Amino acid sequence: MAEVERVYTIPLRVVKRTPRWKRAKRSVSEVRSYLERHMKAERENIKIDSSVNEWLWGRGASKPPLKIRIRAVKFDDWYNNG
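Now predict its structure.
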């Protein structure tokens, strides 16, 4: 039942190497893979809040931010809900 809460600054510069029209979508997947690596969670168990998604898509698909600071929370009893 212990929660793990951390604040990360996720670099998104690698997104600049993708085509312009795919950059926001790629930045969402980069956030997901970063959290998968650093929180030691499975990809399908990572939930991204809608405010983070709106922040990444806020300036359009071709100009996402170069970094984002987020608060990540890991629940131990997340898997035992169903």
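The chain has two helices and two strands.
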